[in-house]
Records
---
Amino acid sequence: MTVATKSSAAPLTTRPQLRPITGLVNVLLSIKPLASFAKSRARKMMIDRAEDMGVYWRKEAAFLSEQNLEALRQQIENPALVYPDYYLTSFHAYDEGNLGWLPATEVEVAARAVHAKIWPEAKERGDQKLRDSFLDVVDRRIDQTQTPITAIVDLGCSVGLSTFRIRDRYPIAQMTGIDLSSYFLAVAMYRAAERKTQLKTVEPDSNQPDIRWIHAAAEATTLDDNCCDLVTLFLVCHELPAEASCEIFREARRILRPGGHLAIMEMNPKSEIYAQMPPYVFTLLKSTEPYLDSYFNLDIEQALIDSGFNSPTIDCNSPRHRTVIARAAETAIS
Ligand SMILES: C[S@@+](CC[C@H](N)C(=O)[O-])C[C@H]1O[C@@H](n2cnc3c(N)ncnc32)[C@H](O)[C@@H]1O
């Protein structure tokens, strides 16, 4: 793993590069029937490719959709929650964005398929490897003799992929997962129950605390001041306008104890992969990730300092991802 604080590659979006093919892609994407046709072709190709490498997309998503997830969704849903406007849009080529059963039942397989390409040799284990590479940086960067990690909040936890991997590293910490999608949280609760049953068979006396799931915005977690030692944001900031990321950093600072840490795992705008990506491919990517430009142009180090953190460390944990770790300044929130 390389340690990178700075890289010579400029963020992709700051370079003037609107070539004819990019313009053409933009025009095609603005014509609704063409965009829908392209989307459904791309979706079929992605699913077929995933299945070729052993991610049984259709079968696994169908299995999940047959479980009684709606009951779990109703249990977790906060009917008073007001969704931020930026959230109520299409993401990842799902018209319903993150608020529906199709995206919820496909998150796990999609993550395994997409992350299979990070390290060619890892194939469908790429997703786990990505999560582990993040946690390795967390282990290395946070001196637990100074700040023991006893309570963790995973913001934007989705169906729990990040939360469960973190839980496996910190088996007795208090864990909280927060997300705006009650559909995703329902899947997380289903998986948590499954994991609990498995744990009871191998370790009947296990005292592992249950994960607490909360349907809330990461900007307004509803948690107490100074209540945790580690806040994680795993692949969340690229789905946010920069101002929302900054608001979430301030909320993370509020709920962290002084000296606690915020750990962010994200796409690395300075990686060679994005710098060398043909602009029309980046345009296609942006058509499924509405806030990518905003994220790529965010000065994350400065934003963290402005939100009450010390200067962060930044490590490359994959050829195209970075882990940013910032320590909450010592002054307690009063
Ligand atoms: C790409 S997913 C990443 C999920 C998860 N951390 C993982 O590692 O698989 C981003 C998640 O952030 C959630 N999200 C986006 N904006 C949010 C906000 N303001 N508050 C809470 N969750 C948010 C989305 O609903 C989605 O589940």
Note: The chain is about 45% helix and 15% strand.
---
Amino acid sequence: MSEPDPVALNPSDLARARELIRAAERVAVLTGAGISAESGIPTFREAQTGHWARFRPEDLASPAAYRRDPEMVWQWYAGRARDVQAAAPNPGHTALAELERRKGEGFLLATQNVDGLHARAGSERLIELHGNLAQARCERCAHVQPWPGEATAPPPCPVCGATLRPNVVWFGEYLPSAALEASQLAFAQADLALVIGTSSLVEPAASLPLLTLRGGGAVTEINPDQTPISALVTLRLAGRASQVLPALLEDYV
Ligand SMILES: [Zn+2]
């Protein structure tokens, strides 16, 4: 696989990308699995080894699976919670937390990732569209808490006594509507959208940068691979997030 170095990126593209970032008052960012790959987060499929290899993803990550065998589903997610807790944010995550500090209220980061690494890097104006593997939430009252690492089966909610579940969006479930609407608004109003490390195939998140273009804003895509939106974006930087993002902010003080 090719791994372009940012210094190998077209210098005028890099200069233009820096200019767009500086000039923008409202910046909306969408990230996907690509930004976390270098933090060693296994994908769902990569995590399905040994005992878990014989299951289909929907046998582990659906409301029906949880009703059928809550203890098994809980144990699968306990393993995934350990995976994300063992990983650490990389310079791509850190650069986005820095950009937020510079842009303040005009900034929003929406992520498709469930690894919690943006929050751990310091991002606060953050929407985790698909939830967070390091958290459990109540099925009834929506109480959210850190993953209870000691539990080997779903424990009761400390607030209402109903059952806790992983705080992630499962197959067959909708994204939380408030999170999606806040993201859509931010992208529609953005002067600049950054689309980072996402295949741009999974809806409804994939359409977010199109809202920016429709509103007259610019879109910069950062991805070593071509995606369905590559032909539509204002600017494309073919590189890895952990290298390109720090390079974009280098002389932005
Ligand atoms: Zn509860």
Note: DSSP finds ten helices and nine strands in the chain.
